[in-house]
Write a structure and sequence with these properties.
The protein has no helices and 5 strands. The chain has 91 residues and is mostly beta strands. Pfam families: DUF6916 (PF21880).
Length: 91
């Protein structure tokens, strides 16, 4: 099911350790005929590949400038470390 990205917001750090990047909140719009429950879903984008992210339905008024309250909105909050991801050890 395609979701449309409608907003990206950098969230306050609120004491987050320095090794973490600032949290990002991504808001997506979904189709009216399908409502997703709060869960972890595989998400795919050609530029970043496939990842499993926690998706939560949010109220339409929480997205600045969003005018169509008939379509569901969903949010993903990402918190990433600044450290490089280590390659798996060879066996």
């Amino acid at each position: 099911m395609p979701l449309t990205l409608v907003e990206v917001v950098e969230r306050p750090r609120r004491g987050l350790p320095a090794r973490f990047m600032s949290p990002l909140s991504l808001a997506f719009q979904g189709p009216a005929h399908i409502i997703l429950s709060q869960d972890t879903y595989p998400m795919f984008h050609p530029a970043i590949g496939e990842h499993s992210w926690g998706l939560v339905q949010i109220a339409p008024y929480s997205v600045a400038g969003y005018e169509d309250s008939t379509l569901p909105l969903y949010e993903i909050v990402l918190i990433q470390t600044n450290e490089a991801v280590a390659a798996p050890a060879s066996a």
